[in-house]
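Late entry, evening session. Most of the bench is empty. Finally got around to the prediction I had been postponing all week. Sequence below, unchanged from the version circulated by S.P.
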Amino acid sequence: MTGNLEAFQAELAASGFPPLVNKLAGAGAGFRGGIAACDLGPLRLVSLDTPESACIGRERDASDGVNLAVKVMTRGRTRIEQGRGDAELGPADLVLLDPTRTLRFESTAAAHVTILVPRRELRIRPAQIDRLIGVRIDGSHGPGALVSVLAQELARSATEFREAEALRSAAAVVELIAVALEARLGDEQLVPDEWLRDRIVGYIEARLADPDLSPPGIAAAHHISLRRLHKLFEDQPLTVAALIRRRRLERCRAELTGSGRTVTAVAARWGFSDPTHFSKLFKATYGYNARALVTSNRARTTKTRTAGPDKDGGDQGR
């Protein structure tokens, strides 16, 4: 717990949480608040424990809007006004917030977990986001309840995840958040083709490590024909198979850059059962061998440990 408002606000800013300014209440000498932050892949989780308070968050530049915020109440009650929404939140309820917009809230002594989600990860159209901002999502049942429970558990255990586990778990969390948001939209969903395509992309992201992930299986899981599946993606930059391949390669490259695992092990983890085929795909996509990342990573590790010059890793890593 922090017994000083200024120190609490400094910790809040350092966590990456959208800043709150113009403190209206709860700012006396007896202020006590707690904050903890951790990462799960591209997600940032910020746990807050605050006294009774009322705050305003100013409008910010669009450049500050890389993330959207999903706030999950765990204790107490909060009223939040943002956009066209005016949400009264109790324990387990959640709300989607936009850090670039003016925010007002009044709260009892409360605890909550906020998940900062890269805007691009949600794959929901801006017009749909506008309708969801500041709107209460019931956390007592359905997809909202799953997000609520998961957010609280991740805030406690995210630091225990290994890198690959964190990436895969984050993809599943984003998919579940998208489901909860789309459910809240009710009958006014995306146009059918776009909605279905977005759902399929989320399905793919959550299952990239499955070696059996393929267009026929995806079509069957969504109760559509293979022809219909391909038609959904005919105006997109990548076909379904190419999308799966590219996203797997991206996951492999990220893991090879930051871990000491072998190329074969990483390839297998992300659904490539044939190491030779994987190596050819990787080089054709990025212009260098996957093994060069492992060699470069080991060279950097050795250099860090010995504080000596790196004699053979630099050229291979380029």
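Two things to note before I forget:
The radius of gyration is 22 Å.
The chain has 13 helices and eleven strands.
Will write this up properly tomorrow.
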